Amino acid sequence: MGSTVISIPDGELSLPLPSIKKEKERPNKLSIIFSYLGELQKNRQKMRKLIHSIKVGIALVLVSLLYLLDPLYEQVGENAMWAIMTVVVIFEFFAGATLSKGINRGLGTILGGGLGCSAATLAQEVTGMGEASTIIIGSSVFVIGAAGTYTRLQPSIKKRYDYAAMIFILTFNLVVVSGLRAEEVLKLARERLSTIGMGFAVCIIISLLVFPTWASDELHDSLSSKFQALAKAIEECLEDYFRLNSEKDNQPGQQSSSSGSCKSVLHSKSKDESLANFAKWEPWHGKFGLYYPWNKYLQVGEQLRDLATIVLSLKACLQSPRQPSSSVRQSIKEPSKAVGLALALTLRELGESVTKMRRSQQEAVIMPKLKSMRVELNSIISSSKFGPLENVDELAISSFVFLLMEIVEKVEELVKEVEELGELADFGTK
């Protein structure tokens, strides 16, 4: 049997390829914007870390002069090392953290040193340097150490004065068990306290005056960014739910971004509490003033974490293999996506209100809109929407609508919290 050769002109098969390649490489404008903002934030964080490192280096150079320069060394002697230790220990990234740690160290040193000197003097005055003095000093170490440790474990003390309690116990023990005479103990305590004060002063001056990093600004920006993250997560969840199966197969990498945003919000509690604690120590600066409602910030953060758990539940519901058919999902697509887009828009408006530190101008519009969303969601689960369903389909659709209703209710609570926060912010900045 003969064979037939069919010649194909060059380039004929390659014509569609450039268009396919072009379609695949076409960038998403929204992803470009988010990647640019993320890169800008990373660069900003890197610059702040670099500036902080330079500030610590400058502070260490300044306090080292107490030891390196002869005129200064003659005044402070070997106690200059305590100034260096103070800078290393208390210089923190945020100005409020540095101020908090410095004040805590000062309080602990003064109280512990004073009480230790008193106990040592009392023991020497009453019993001299014999065994009775050892018994008195040992008893005072036990009583003060146990009482100080118990006090340190109390939540109200541990939250703000844990470092002061630790320094108090340490200083008391160092002073009271030293075998020096009372006059030498007082002199040593005075010299060390003066050098610690020098190190503290250098830290505070550099931290507050040279490119200060405020914990209050960090907490404020962190809270407002959570609204944006959750709004984006809700939109992605709904897009993923109503995306056809063939489209899901072509875009496998989009399923984890919404979960990551929610988890970052969910795991932010300890960070928010630390920032709020540092912010309470900060002096007046910029737009925040002195009496800013940091506790209210924490309450709003708790509400956002509750909302994040619901969105994660919605995401888990969408990832379940027991999902209704595409036709059933498409029948509720328009009302559900309308509710989701409205929720995302509401969260972004609330985040903007927090960012600008003002009361929400849309409250009179937002609350009626949220109530109408609940009515719309109630109407979705009526049988007239999609006809008779199997039991599994009914359960899946009901779970989906129920979680959306939970999100609506949680956003209603957030509207009230943000409104109260705006009122307190207006009062605090007047």
Report on this model:
This protein has 430 residues and is mainly alpha-helical. Helix content is 79%, strand content 0%. It is elongated and about 90 Å long. The N terminus is likely disordered.
**Secondary-structure element string:** HHHHHHHHHHHHHHHHH
The quaternary organization reads as: single chain
Number of strands: 0
Mean pLDDT: 77
Radius of gyration: 32 Å
Note the total helix count: 17
Low-pLDDT residue spans: 1-27
Output the structural class. mainly alpha
Percent helix, as a range, is: over 70%
Largest sheet, strands/sense/barrel: none
End-to-end Cα distance: 99 Å
Question: What portion of residues belong to β-strands?
Answer: under 5%
Shape: elongated
Spell out the blueprint of helices and strands.
Blueprint lengths: L15 H10 L3 H40 L1 H7 L3 H11 L4 H33 L3 H22 L2 H22 L5 H28 L5 H28 L2 H6 L6 H10 L2 H13 L12 H25 L7 H6 L1 H23 L7 H18 L10 H38 L2
Helix pairs in contact: 2-3, 2-4, 2-8, 4-8, 5-6, 5-7, 5-8, 5-12, 6-7, 9-11, 9-12, 9-13, 9-15, 11-13, 12-13, 13-17, 15-16, 15-17, 16-17
